[in-house]
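Researcher: We plan to redesign the surface later, but first we want a full-length starting point. Tokens attached.
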């Protein structure tokens, strides 16, 4: 099994997963953004879309995210080749994660890889661009809702009731790792 974090949120969730005790050799990070990858403690880290984004992320553009994913399609295929089960962690409020998630879901189906995903929706207050990226991604994922757990930052934040300032994401991510990731069927079937 591999846990693959994609984009900024997915990469942060992988960091939290490792902090919570999940072995780092099980974790992979994939992003267009080099800076984010630098701070990820996953054993294997891959930059995609080098030509499309120049290592800078997509700036919340799903068009650029899709272009980055297609630029690096062979690399993405080789990252998951050989896996029989994967868990994908991502937000769907940015360009990289939302686009790459749908590409990975498609590849998992094509190669018969058993997968589950956690997709995190942005805070309502983050504005209409992120909201519409998230709505489009939700539409794309509609036929895979059995495998994809949809969470949203507002709901998880209400549950944690912690971190009203800078460390909001830390508390939310802790909750997602412990209450969602570690409860997934793929995870429990392998770890317990
Ligand atoms: N729970 C949680 N949500 C996050 C975190 N980081 C970002 N997000 C959410 O995810 C949304 C999209 O951000 P990213 O995941 O960084 O976007 P990305 O996939 O890297 O895409 P681009 O940076 O646009 O190329 C944000 O608007 C936040 O709502 C995190 O660490 N935890
Ligand atoms: Mg990013």
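Model: Full-length starting sequence:
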């Amino acid at each position: 099994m591999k846990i693959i974090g994609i984009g900024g949120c997915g990469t942060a969730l992988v960091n939290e997963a490792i902090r919570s005790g999940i072995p780092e050799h099980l974790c992979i990070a994939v992003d267009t953004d080099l800076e984010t990858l630098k701070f990820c403690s996953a054993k294997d880290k891959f930059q995609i879309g080098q030509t499309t984004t120049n290592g800078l992320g997509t700036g919340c553009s799903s068009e650029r995210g899709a272009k980055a994913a297609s630029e690096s399609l062979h690399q993405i295929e080789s990252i998951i080749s050989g896996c029989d089960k994967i868990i994908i962690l991502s937000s769907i409020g940015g360009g990289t994660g939302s686009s790459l998630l749908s590409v990975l879901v498609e590849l998992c189906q094509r190669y018969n890889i058993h997968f589950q995903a956690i997709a995190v929706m942005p805070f309502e207050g983050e504005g209409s661009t992120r909201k519409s990226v998230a709505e489009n991604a939700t539409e794309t994922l509609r036929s895979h809702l059995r495998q994809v757990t949809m969470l949203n930052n507002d709901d998880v934040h209400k549950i944690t009731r912690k971190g009203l300032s800078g460390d909001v994401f830390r508390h939310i991510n802790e909750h997602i790792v412990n209450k969602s990731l570690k409860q997934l069927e793929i995870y429990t079937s392998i770890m317990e």
